[in-house]
Design brief:
Number of helices of chain A: 1
Oligomer: heterotrimer
Distance between the termini of chain A: 74 Å
Radius of gyration of chain A: 24 Å
Helix content of chain C: over 70%
Strand content of chain A: under 5%
Structural class of chain C: mainly alpha
Order of helices and strands of chain A: H
Chains: A mainly alpha (58), B mainly alpha (232), C mainly alpha (227)
Largest sheet of chain A: none
Helix content of chain A: over 70%
Distance between the termini of chain C: 23 Å
Structural class of chain A: mainly alpha
Shape of chain C: globular
Shape of chain A: rod-shaped
Chain lengths: 58, 232, 227
């Protein structure tokens, strides 16, 4: 069929783009959560804030 | 300060695996399982990603609307964080929907773009929610940012059907709008499988994105505490 | 309560119009800008009278929308001097009067602008609005009202944002699509003739959009100004 032959590249491009967008967005989410976790660790958010911390904690 | 949920881990890896399986199954079914459309040929298989992507986008914006209403009623920041998470995902998938529609349109209609009511409304919807995200980037105070964004989330969502109606009116005066043809049984099942896969994908992305939003809010609060001499 | 709302709205409208009357420069700048936009259309499209008159309705509305957008931002900026808006807000009573007053100010300014702009456009773009002048005026007023309703709402919302000059059109124009489509199509039909009698439908649609946007914006407005 003529339509089939001419349409296939568009089909492949469509699926490739869909998966590329998925991978890109997940990669972005991963990077952002990694950054957020590092920043929180750095700020000491997983422990009580520095002002109220016990001296023997360090 | 409320307790900080973990950013990774928890239910996310399991849900992620489930999403991946569902998405792979959907893609495989769409590309391999069903026969090519008699009229359009294999390019019609784009429907199995185009329609679910559009569904995901609509779902995401509906969630933005609900979360915006909840925020304005209860003023709990978590609704705002859920709304912005959903809006971001919605924008990504609206853009994908437009690209896929364009790729589908070129071999079938012969043009990349047509002023079809649904297509046009989708593009306007994308602009409305890009505006939503940009406003957030330009507002500094968290409470005001959440309130303004919620108002835009509500008015924008109300606006979408009105835009659709007006474009429909505009186009029907010139030519009938394109309408989907009725589909045979197996097409419907594959489409439903893909819609299901994209719905799980939405839930998974929401979990991930919301956790990031919560973590970033914690960081912002700490930064505010540090910057504010009265509190420090 | 109702009469108080009307009084407050009137007070704000009167105050803003007085400010405009005393600083005529900004309004003259608006008019020049609108005329300039029309000239740019002429340069972009070329001097062919048929093309110009066919596109006239759309061009006129783009000129009004661009100029109106510039003036919208100013309505709330004038309140920033000496905390004017805070003064209005803490004043007891219905806060919606602020919205209504600003809305009517914008509407009035745009109507005055159009009184000057339409004859200029008619000359430059070879438009013939005189055959159905009452219809043309009605459509223009309806479209301008819809523009002012949505525009005033978003102008107030974006007032405190950084880069608000950019944010206002970004939010406003997508939301305005229904009003814009209605106004442009009805205007074009009133200018170029309407053999299939579609104009009534467009006018009803324009009225419906005006009412919907007005109700939604008025209802939700107190949330915008909340402190």
């Amino acid at each position: 069929m003529e339509g089939q032959a001419s349409g296939t590249p568009f089909l492949i491009a469509g699926y490739l783009i869909t998966w590329a967008v998925l991978v890109w967005y997940l990669w972005r989410l991963n990077r952002r959560s990694l950054q957020a976790r590092r920043a929180l660790d750095f700020a000491g958010a997983t422990r009580p804030p520095i002002e109220t911390q016990e001296p023997n904690d360090e | 300060m409320q307790d900080l949920p973990e950013i990774e881990g928890g239910s996310a890896p399991l849900l992620g695996t489930l999403t991946l399986i569902a998405m792979l199954a959907g893609t495989a079914a769409g590309l391999l399982l069903v026969p090519a459309d008699a009229l359009q040929g294999s390019v019609q298989r784009l429907m199995y990603v185009h329609v679910p992507a559009a569904w995901l986008a609509m779902l995401a914006f509906f969630v933005v609307f609900v979360m915006s209403v909840l925020y304005l009623v209860q003023r709990d920041p978590k609704w705002d964080l859920l709304a912005v998470s959903s809006a971001e995902i919605g924008v990504v998938f609206t853009a994908l929907t437009l690209v896929l529609g364009s790729l589908w349109g070129k071999p079938t209609w012969g043009v990349w773009w047509t002023w079809d009511p649904r297509l046009t409304t989708t593009a306007i919807m994308l602009m409305i929610y890009v505006g939503y995200l940009v406003v957030r980037a330009f507002a500094e105070d968290p409470e005001k940012r959440a309130r303004w964004a919620a108002i835009i989330g509500i008015v924008g969502f109300v606006d979408v059907p009105i835009v659709y109606l007006s474009v429909l009116w505009w186009r029907t005066l010139h030519q009938p709008p394109s309408s989907p043809r009725s589909m045979a049984g197996e097409f419907v099942y594959v489409l439903l499988l893909n819609v299901g896969a994209f719905t799980i994908l939405y839930v998974y992305l929401m979990v991930r994105r919301y956790r990031i939003a919560v973590a970033e809010q914690h960081l912002d609060e700490r930064r505010l505490v540090r910057d504010d001499p009265a509190a420090g | 309560m109702r009469s108080e709302l009307i009084l407050r709205t009137w007070a704000i409208l009167w105050k803003d119009l007085l400010i405009e009357l005393r600083t005529k420069q900004s309004f003259s700048a608006m008019v020049s800008f609108a005329a300039l936009v029309l000239f740019l259309f002429g340069f972009a499209i070329g001097p062919d009278p048929d093309t110009l008159s066919r596109l006239g309705g759309g061009l006129l509305w783009i000129a009004i929308a661009f100029t109106g957008m510039l003036s919208l931002g100013r309505t709330f900026q004038s309140e920033e001097v000496a905390g004017g808006l805070d003064g209005l807000r803490v004043y007891p009573g219905e806060i919606r009067a602020i919205y209504l007053g600003k809305l009517l100010t914008n509407f009035a300014l745009l109507v005055v602008l159009e009184v000057i702009l339409v004859p200029v456009a008619a000359v430059l773009l070879q438009l013939e609005p005189w055959d159905r002048f009452p219809t043309f005026v009605g459509i223009t007023l309806l479209g301008t009202f819809g523009f002012s309703v949505v525009g005033t709402f978003y102008a107030s919302l974006t007032q405190h944002l950084r880069a608000r000059e950019l944010m206002l059109p970004l939010l406003l124009f997508p939301a305005l699509v229904p009003v814009f489509l209605g106004a442009v199509n009805a205007t074009t039909l009133s200018l170029a003739g309407d053999p299939l009698d579609h104009i009534g439908g467009w006018i009803r649609l324009l009225i419906a959009f005006d009412i919907i946007f007005f109700v939604v914006c008025l209802w939700i407005y107190p949330l915008v100004l909340e402190e």
